[in-house]
Amino acid sequence: MERRRRIGSPERRAAPLDFDDVIYGIHTVDEALEAGERLRAIHISDDRKRDPMMRKILDNAKAAGIPVRFEERTWFAQLPYKAHQGCVALAQPYAYASLHDVLGKHKDGARLFVILDHITDPHNLGAIIRTAESVGADAVVIPERRAAGVNATVRKAAAGAAEHLPVVRVANIADTIRTLKKANIWAVGADAGRESQDMVEADLNRDLALVMGAEDGLSQLVKRECDFLVRIPMHGQTESLNASVATAVLLYEVLRQRRPA
User: Fold this and answer.
1) Domain extent listing, the chain
2) pLDDT in tens, 232-256
3) Is the pLDDT of residue 10 over 50?
4) 10-91 fold
C-alpha cells in the first residue's frame, strides 16, 4: 500500500496534514466551501488574513463551523505546493462515488460518462474533471490501480469541479464498460487508427461513455469493448494531443451535436 505523505512541524504532530486530503489555493478552497464539503480546518497565512480575497472564505468557514488557523510563512514553506496562495484546507478523504449510484440517478437528456484508461498525470486528471463537469457529464470513471487518484494536485487542477462532479473508482475498466453497455450506454473509444471515424461524422448524440487513453492510447482489451472508435482530425505536423486537451475537444464535439439545431 502506498504511504500517504504527511507534513507538520513538531508542535503539530498530533494533527499533521495529509497530502492526499489537502485542498490548496483560494479559488479551490472557496469552491469546496460553496459545495458544502466537510473541511476539518482551514490554514491561512498571517500576512493574508486581512486580504479582501479571504473575506468570503473566512465568512463561509465561520458559518459552517470550520476552524481557521492563521500560520506563519514558515508553516507554508513545508508544503510541496507553490500555488497555495496562503490558503490551505484539510478535507475529509475524497469520497468516490459508486457506479451503481451514479447509474441510478436520472437526469434530462442523453447521459454522458468519461472513462479514463490509466491516466497517470494528476494535472491531466484534474483538467479532464473540470471539462467533464463544464459539459454536464454524469461522472468520470478511473481505475483503482496504475492511475492517478483524486489528490491535492487533481483538486487544484480541477478548480473546484471535483466537488461537483462524481468521480467513480473501479477495479476493472473493461468490466465497467460492459456494465454501462448493459444499461444501454454506448461506449466510444478515442483512437487515432484508420478504423476510427472522424469525430464530426460519428453519431455522438446518444447515451454515451467516452473512453480516453493515456499518451500511448487505449489498451487493446479496453479498445475491444468499445462499440466504435473516433479520432480527432489533425491537419498540422503534430501527431497527437495531450490527454486532457483531446478529451476536451471530444467532449465539446459531443456537446455540439447535442445542441438543438
Assistant:
1) 10-91, 99-258
2) 998 877 777 889 999 999 999 999 9
3) no
4) 60s Ribosomal Protein L30; Chain: A; (3.30.1330)
pLDDT band (50, 70, 90) for residue 17:
low
Q: Please state, as a whole number, how many other Cβ atoms lie within 10 Å of the Cβ of residue 124.
A: 23
DSSP 8-state code for residue 98: P
Which of 106 and 27 is assigned the larger pLDDT?
27
- In this predicted model, which residue has the larger pLDDT, 14 or 236? 236
Tell me the C-alpha distance between 147 and 125, whole Å.
9
Q: 128: Cβ–Cβ under 8 A, 6 or more apart, which residues?
A: 114, 116, 119, 140, 212, 243, 244, 247, 248
Q: Which helix (H) or strand (E) holds 71?
A: strand 68-71
Helix axes 26-34, 52-64, angle to 10 degrees: 30
Query: Could you tell me how many residues make up the chain?
Result: 261
The architecture CATH gives domain 99-258: 3-Layer(aba) Sandwich (3.40)
φ and ψ of 224, to 5 deg: -65, -25
Q: Among 82, 73, 90, which Cα is nearest to 29's?
A: 90
Residue 68 in 3-state DSSP? strand
* pLDDT at residue 67 tops 90: yes
Exposed/middle/buried for residue 15 (C-beta within 10 Å: 0-12, 13-18, 19+): exposed
Predicted confidence (pLDDT) at residue 12 exceeds the cutoff of 50: no
Please answer whether residues 126 and 156 qualify as being in contact, where contact means their C-beta atoms are separated by less than 8 angstroms.
yes
Rounded alpha-carbon distances, angstroms, from residue 186 to 110, 111, 113, 168, 183 = 11, 10, 10, 18, 9
- At 176-195, the pLDDT tens digits run 999 999 999 999 999 988 88
Specify the 3-state DSSP secondary structure of 23. strand
